[in-house]
Specification:
By secondary structure, the protein is of the alpha/beta class. Among the domains are: 167 residues, Leucine-rich repeat, LRR (right-handed beta-alpha superhelix) (Alpha-Beta Horseshoe), CATH 3.80.10; 84 residues, Rossmann fold; 89 residues, no CATH class; 105 residues, Ribonuclease Inhibitor (Leucine-rich repeat, LRR (right-handed beta-alpha superhelix), Alpha-Beta Horseshoe), CATH 3.80.10.10. It contains 23 helices and 24 strands. Strands 1-2-3-4-5-6-7-8-9-10-11-12-13-14-15 form a 15-stranded parallel β-sheet.
Length: 720
């Protein structure tokens, strides 16, 4: 039992088809060959001016149908389906809409997006009101057509009405449906006329989701305070000056949308929802000039939309919202003046900080660096900024360097009193240490190359060596990023952000390899090794690096040297400026690691990737060649990974010779071997008795070989 999106494939296995999702060509009629799919339960159709034959009424097991696009004529076959429970019309209006819904008494949900408002060609089918079992109803209709018969649908749990005129009696009828759990009334204020929302809406005690978007409502009835089961409240694009709630009225409310309500005092109105467990808060397009401080009181907040406002500064206390993971700041000054942009970098940083057992100060410093909050950073000590150099975001690290450099004047001007002695340990490579050296020299500060009893400050160079431990008791004025890791280890500041719970090392490695900063990747992998990556992950590390096409082999050296012999290190040095692909070939040539493990790792990372292009790239090709050359079980697994149903896809590998392990898959019907540099096929290929199609395009077969293959496989469609 499966989903099919292709008619030809579905007809090959008609008894297996339970779900069809098809796109029909313009003006075509759906083939009645699909009547062979006797067990079809779900049918989804998309197209323009298409038709469905009346014979489809024979598909008696159909339970759900969705029509999308523009239809030629109404598919009246639906009225003969006794099991049909869910019916959906999404698309444009049609010329007629039969009033025969009484023939579907078993229907549970009905959606008609064709508008019955101001449409002289469509008459509202009142037989809908006979569907007393209906639980979900979605309409674009005139309210005047709904009163009073809508009240007959006592079982309705979800009701949506859009693009209609307001009608007082109809609204009273809607509010009498006491089983409603979802009520969506959107875009119903035509010609500026506000939707009439009666006090009786408070009788909907089971209501969980209420949407009143774009209805020109100036106020809300106080009876809404009775809806204590409410979880979602959508009030976007209203005319409200205040909301008729008090704090504690909605104890289950998790989603609140106040988008496009410029008349509201947002900060004041949000005070009314502090006691609610708000998870999703939408404040988009409210011309807010400042971040509403009350938002920081919603401790369960996960999503916050501030887009299209005038907010130019975020409070750093936002890092104290422990669950916040989605922040939208598009079309705000923040998006233009900082690296916040749409909020994605902030979200990434918040996610990292949320996984980290870091202090509040550490979280604030990182966010301040991302947002260019130099006013705050001016008051922070260099010691608090140093750990931010290890955040896996380039902007944060770069700004951390800038922030530390801005502390130079303060950290050196205070050293002017005698007998201050500054000892510089290590080589003076790099601009920062030279800058410090020159400034100290200009101030007449005594500088030493050796630790003395009179030493009061230490400046670390690139290679402090053994003297680093002796310097820990001194006050460090500056530390170069190149030596930051060793320094931070000594003072027990974690280099990498640690997770609350153990994470699959491969996942962490993949995240690091995706990082485009080579220095950070190299340092990060080194630290992970020192943290204890299991040796058996070596092969996966190599393949991951191959998969991500990380070009410099510096990372390979740092990762692999820990587990390899001196001879292999020589191979790495020999190939130090070549890509990871060349290093893999070095593995294979020198036989320095287990080839089977390497091939299986390659298979694991590539077997589920579809071949979206005609040719595989070099990395994918290399990975599978490792499997094919290993032969035996590994080669069979690699071939099996490229087989889907009865088809083998080996296009663009340039393997030159067919792997003998392919012989065991002689039941294949379709084999694609294009772009492999083949000149001939092995004799055992004649064993593929079920073969129907063989693609050999872009190979190197001569004319005689082509004729031989055509004569050998007369019933097979061969493409050269």
């Amino acid at each position: 039992m499966a989903l099919y999106t292709n008619i030809k494939e579905a007809l090959q296995n008609p008894q297996d088809v339970t779900h069809l999702n098809l796109r029909i060509d313009y003006g075509k009629t759906l083939t009645d060959e699909l009547l062979a799919c006797k067990h079809l339960r779900t049918l989804e159709l998309t197209g323009h001016y298409y038709e469905v034959p009346d014979a489809f009424t024979q598909l008696k097991e159909l339970e759900q149908i969705t029509f999308r696009g523009r239809y030629n004529r109404f598919p009246e076959f639906i009225f003969g389906l006794p099991q049909l429970k869910h019916l959906c019309f999404e698309g444009y209006s049609m010329t007629n809409f039969p009033d025969k819904f009484h023939l579907l008494p078993q229907l549970l949900s009905l959606k008609i997006s064709s508008s019955f408002v101001n449409n002289p060609y469509l008459k509202f089918p009142e037989s809908i009101f006979s569907l007393t079992q209906l639980k979900q109803l979605y309409l674009y209709a005139d309210m005047r057509n709904l009163h009073p018969k809508l009240g007959q649908l006592k079982q309705l749990e979800q009701f949506e009405l859009s693009y209609s005129y307001s009608h007082q009696e109809a609204m009273e009828t809607i509010c009498s449906l006491t089983n409603l759990q979802t009520l969506i009334l959107s875009n119903n204020g035509h010609n500026g006329q506000a939707l009439h929302l009666p006090d009786s809406v408070g009788n909907l005690k089971r209501l969980k989701h209420l949407s009143l978007q774009n209805n020109h409502l100036p106020n809300l009835p106080r009876s809404l305070r009775k809806l204590t089961a409410l979880e979602t409240l959508q009030l976007s694009n209203g005319k409200f000056t205040q909301l008729s709630f008090q704090n504690g009225d909605l104890p289950k409310l998790t989603t609140l949308a106040l988008e496009q309500n410029k008349q509201l005092n947002i900060s004041s109105e949000l005070q009314k929802f502090i006691a609610s467990p708000i998870i999703d808060l939408n404040l988009k397009s409210n011309s807010l000039k400042q971040f509403p401080p009350v938002v920081l009181q919603f401790k369960q907040l996960q999503k916050l939309n501030l887009a299209n406002n005038k907010i130019d500064h975020l409070p750093l206390d936002i890092v104290d919202l422990p669950e916040l993971n989605q922040l939208n700041t598009t079309k705000t000054p923040l998006a233009h003046t900082t690296e916040a942009k749409s909020g994605k970098p902030i979200n990434k940083l918040l996610a990292l900080l949320r996984k980290n057992n870091s202090s509040q100060q550490f979280r604030k410093v990182n966010l301040a660096l991302l947002l260019n909050d130099w006013q705050y950073l001016k008051e922070v000590t260099p010691q608090d900024i140093l750990p931010a150099l290890n955040t896996p975001q380039n902007v944060v690290r770069e700004n951390a360097l800038i922030a530390l450099e801005r502390h130079f004047p303060n950290s050196t001007e205070g050293l002017s009193a005698k007998p201050v002695v500054v000892t510089m340990i290590g080589k003076n490579k790099g601009l920062p240490i030279n800058k410090t050296y020159q400034k100290l020299k200009e101030q007449g500060i005594q500088i030493s190359r050796f630790l003395q009893t009179t030493t009061t400050h230490v400046v670390l160079g690139t290679e402090p060596g053994e003297k680093l431990g002796q310097a820990q008791d001194m006050q460090v004025a500056w530390v170069l990023p190149q030596h930051l890791r060793s320094y931070l280890q000594q003072i027990e500041v974690p280099y990498l952000m640690q997770e609350d719970q153990p994470q699959d090392p491969l996942q962490s490695l993949e995240e690091l390899l995706l990082n485009k900063d080579p220095q950070n990747v190299a340092l990060g992998l080194t630290m992970m090794l020192e943290g204890g990556i299991p040796e058996e992950l070596l092969y996966d590390i190599v393949i991951l690096a191959l998969k991500k096409n990380y070009p410099p082999s510096q990372t390979a050296k740092k990762v692999l040297e820990r587990y390899t012999s001196e001879e292999f290190r020589a191979v790495l040095r020999k190939h130090s400026r070549k890509s990871m692909v060349n290093i893999l070939w070095a593995f294979q040539q020198e036989r320095l690691i287990d080839q089977k493990k390497l091939a299986l790792s390659a298979l694991k990372f590539f077997k589920n990737e579809p071949n979206r292009y005609y040719y595989f790239n070099t990395l994918q090709r290399t990975a599978f060649e490792l499997c094919f050359k290993q032969g035996g079980e590994v080669a069979s697994l690699a071939l099996e990974a490229r087989i889907q149903e009865d088809a083998l896809e080996l296009t663009g590998f340039y393997i030159k010779e067919i792997p003998p392990e392919l012989r065991q898959f002689n039941q294949l019907k379709h084999i694609n071997l294009g772009g492999n540099g083949l000149r001939t096929l092995p004799g055992w290929f004649s064993e593929f008795a079920a073969l129907e199609k063989l693609d050999l395009t872009n190979n190197m077969f001569n004319k005689n070989e082509k004729n031989y293959l055509r004569n050998s496989f007369p019933n097979v469609r061969i493409l050269f």
